[in-house]
Amino acid sequence: MAGTAVVVGAGVGGLATAIGLRGAGWRVSVLERRAEPERYGTAFGIHPTAQAALDRLGVGEAFRRRAVPYRSARIRTPRGKVLASLPLERIERRAGRPELLISRPHLLDALLARLAALGGEVTVRAGVEAHDVPALVAEHDLVVGADGIGSAVRTALLGGRSGPRRIGTVAWIGIADFESGIHGETWGRGRFFGMTPVEPGRTNWYATVPEATTAEELRDRFAGWHEPIPRILAETDPATWIRYEMRHLFPALRSFVHGGKVALVGDAAHAMTPNLGQGACTAILDAEALTRAVARHGRATLPEALRAYDTERRRAAQRVAFGSRTLHRFMSTDHTRLRNAAISALRVG
Ligand SMILES: Cc1cc2nc3c(=O)[nH]c(=O)nc-3n(C[C@H](O)[C@H](O)[C@H](O)COP(=O)(O)OP(=O)(O)OC[C@H]3O[C@@H](n4cnc5c(N)ncnc54)[C@H](O)[C@@H]3O)c2cc1C
Question: Is residue 215 part of a domain?
Fold first, then answer.
């Protein structure tokens, strides 16, 4: 028999979890502290394994309608010399389908549409911030913390040992209103610039620099780099750029579950630096694995379901987080030799 669940957070991880639980017949309420869905966020790369998870959640078709394939990307020097290829061709060859890119708002829309289509006993309560986590645990059979890197659920139940940690780098992200013609990443000393497709006629871009850099300084930092990097920064309005401090969850959690009725998914469980582009993928994989385990075991053996989820996802997600942090170190180093070692590891064509 199914039960009642509360999911804290309506980001990618929370909405995907709500879909899976509702599909398994649970009564679900989602609490989201924002009054309105957040409309910002640039492109997410969605790996074929996460696409398969979206298919299993019934979101695949709506997702693919707004996604674009990511087939070719190179790593370049600031002067434009190609050093290596990102392994996108290999991913497509192995999986039989390409990596896809989708803007964050479009992915959230696809998840919300699926949740609405499932109907029945699911409510999304916007503008409600979860504070009293023990009360939620007392009132529901299952509590899912999908509340991001600063997770109130994690802090209340697993303590403050692990928390958000800054890594001394800021990322700037934005969208240019033209197609760049080339995609991939350009690595320079202590900074890098990336460009990906996102939708026809637009280019998703991101740049990382040391924390103190302002928007005005960003243009200077990339002046003289190969085109279209200076053009992108010159032609997009800095008022539309988003700046965020790169953080990750440290130290890694010893468990993603607690007390037989609480589970963490996505950034709440393993927030990572964005270098491998896996934040959304891992949240989707967590949500699908958790809800599959819960559907298989049912309410009566929920603690077993949560243990199965922890076994399936914790090490896997933490390996990705560690890989992303390590790649960040290589990409942002001032030492050319270390950077070249990372490029050699990536070189496939
Ligand atoms: C606004 C925004 C923009 C982003 N843009 C990008 C991007 O462009 N590129 C990229 O790679 N990654 C981006 N990310 C990160 C990316 O979305 C996540 O790494 C990934 O999707 C994992 O999602 P998540 O659902 O675990 O966490 P999140 O996306 O962080 O979602 C957590 C949700 O929980 C809500 N919440 C937090 N605390 C509470 C509480 N106490 N009560 C109720 N609700 C709560 C938050 O408002 C948020 O909606 C962005 C995240 C956010 C929040």
Answer: no
What would the pLDDT profile of 269-299 be if each residue is shown by its tens digit? 999 998 888 999 999 999 999 999 999 998 8
Pocket of ligand 1 (CB under 6 A): 8-14, 31-34, 38, 40-42, 44, 104, 129-130, 146-148, 152, 173, 266-268, 274, 279-280, 283
162, 251 contact by CB (below 8 A): yes
Which residues fall within 8 angstroms of residue 197, CB to CB, at 6 or more apart?
Answer: 43, 68, 69, 70, 101, 179, 183, 203, 204
Whole-prediction pTM: 0.94
Q: Please name every residue paired with 126 in a beta bridge, in sequence order, or none if there are none.
A: 32
Instruction: Tell the residue nearest (CA) to atom 3 of ligand 1.
Output: 41
Query: What CATH number is attached to the domain comprising 103?
Result: 3.50.50.60
Minimal CA–CA distance to 51: which of 40, 37, 41, 61? 61
Asked if residue 335 is part of any domain, the answer here is no
Backbone angles phi, psi at 176, to 5 degrees: -100, 145
Q: What distance lies between CA 275 and its chain's CA centroid?
A: 11
Is residue 238 one of the residues assigned to a domain? no
- Cα angle 112, 318, 34; round to 5: 30
Residue nearest to ligand 1 atom 52, measured at CA:
41
| Structural domain containing residue 268 | 4-72+97-165+248-330
Q: How many domains would you assign to the chain?
A: 1
